[in-house]
Design a protein that fits this description.
Number of domains: 1
Oligomer: single chain
Number of helices: 5
Mean pLDDT: 84
CATH topology: Aminopeptidase
Largest sheet: 5 strands, antiparallel
Helix content: 25-40%
Order of helices and strands: EHEEEEEHEEHEEHHE
Strand order of the largest sheet: 2-3-4-5-6
């Protein structure tokens, strides 16, 4: 289930459930991840919220205690881009809309766990429409919180940073104007960046 190849930037692709909608496969993956757990963020009567794997590559997950199934999964990898050493990228994110999860689990995993630990988070190359919405929300929240938001261009190996004085108050409007999402391979040349 691990995604091995990292691409350059957000190309819109179809949604997938990563086979986690299959009860048998989901429970098997839940057991595998629980056995590899290295850090627990929250453990209560409803769920266990934890990290499995290494600091450089792993999974942050939630397992429901009622069903023994995964209800939230983020696979991440730490890598470097020219000019941006040691960035983290969420290469997979999945959530069961009806499962037990901590309040604001997606936002907290992004900002309080991954960004706090690695200081810079970069989008991956392929985004589902939900993934695009996820990044628009994170860009807005990050800029409103005083974090730096940028767009990494693979062709020039450089980052254009959002500046509210120059680009206006809305980081999401700035991001949309950059034209960095679409359905062709061209869009693999862009990645969104948030840094603390």
């Amino acid at each position: 289930m691990r995604i091995k190849e990292l691409f350059e930037s957000p190309q819109i692709v179809r949604s997938t459930d990563f086979d986690l909608g299959d009860v048998v496969k989901n429970k098997k993956e839940a057991n595998t991840l629980l056995a590899a757990s290295v850090e627990v963020f929250e453990d209560n009567k409803l769920f266990k919220f934890f990290r499995a794997g290494k600091d450089t590559e792993g999974t942050i997950a939630v397992v429901s205690k009622a069903t023994a199934r995964l209800t939230f999964v983020v696979d991440y990898v730490v890598h470097s881009l020219v000019g941006l050493p040691n960035v983290v990228t969420q290469v997979k994110i999945w959530r069961d809309a009806e499962g037990d999860v901590p309040v604001s689990v997606t936002k907290n995993t992004f900002f309080e766990i991954l960004l706090k630990k690695h200081k810079t988070i970069v989008s991956d190359s392929e985004q589902t429409p939900d993934g695009r919405g996820f990044w628009i929300s994170r860009i807005s929240e990050a800029s409103q919180s005083g974090l730096k938001v940028g767009l990494y261009r693979e062709s020039t190996k450089s980052v254009s940073w959002f500046d509210p004085e120059e680009h206006g108050p809305s980081a999401t409007e700035w991001a949309k104007k950059q034209g960095a999402w679409g359905t062709s391979d061209f869009f693999k040349g862009y990645r969104f960046v948030i840094t603390s």
